[in-house]
Amino acid sequence: MTYLLLTVLFLDERYHGLLDRGGPPEWPPSPFRLFQALVAGVARRGELVIGEDTPENTNFTEVGKSIEWLQRLAAPIIIAPNSQRGQAITRFVPNNDGDKKFDRQERLTAKATIPTLFLLEPNQKPEVHYLWDVTNQTESPLLQLRDAARSLTSLGWGIDMAFADARSATQAEVELLPGVRWHPKSGVWRDEGMLRVPLEDQESQSCTLCDLRHCHETAMNRIQHGQPLRIVDKPKVFDRMFYASTERLIGRPIAIFNIERDNDAEQFSYSLSKLIHISGMVRHLAIERMKLNPPRDLRDYSFEDWLRSYVAGHQSKEDNGANPIRY
After folding, report:
1. Among the listed ranges 6-20, 233-247, 281-295, 307-321, which one has the minimum average pLDDT value?
2. Among 188, 193, 194, 197, which residue's Cα sits nearest to residue 248?
3. Of 4, 119, 184, 323, which has the most beta carbons under 10 Å away?
């Protein structure tokens, strides 16, 4: 298996990216944030397109085409250090929109700072790795993507200074990389752990790269002589993907049942210390129901062994770590 490996090395052992303006922290740094940093770095050098950098100009350079190619790939695996949420600090800075008043204290704006601290092992660097599987890709613009990666100057806030590099890596090389493995899980939605990823939608003819260039254009044209301040559009073309790891488990599928006491369906309380009684009764009913309606395809198991191991939970050494139903 062949991977495109893009490594970001931070100059400090902390990261300040947030999921929203007031938090919570975004960890690990999302693929969308990395994509933003790559586009910004290449555009700052004037090497994204040939000619004037406007949203209408789609005459990309070779480096620009490599970034466009990158957004079509599936969400990458992320390898990041162990982390810990730092102490939240509210900072007060002058509001640049209030320059009519000279008194800075009367135009301060509150800004929440919530750092994510790297918990590095001995000899481990403050690095975050992004891995795309390019085994079946006939042509991979590795040299151009390496050039784009070396244009990166920060990842997160402006104070999260970093530099990056890209190369090809084998499965054996990837296994040696230290850190926590974060795997994208499509079709999964959770309240926590949803990270933004680049998107290219052929049907709507919208893409993250096009949207970022449009947002940059609105920022550059925000101020015009004799005109009120214009609205700066925020990026809105991206997808969200759940990232699971040993620090953020995806969880097991569950089924919840409402057990009624009588035909009136009145609610009643049950002591938490005695919930094992209900669990035992539910397991007994599950066993009896399975006897009446056994599954059709058990592959290598007989029905009796499957009932004993998976439904009743009485496992033996021959079950080889099978996961039973838990009540």
Report:
1. 307-321
2. 193
3. 4
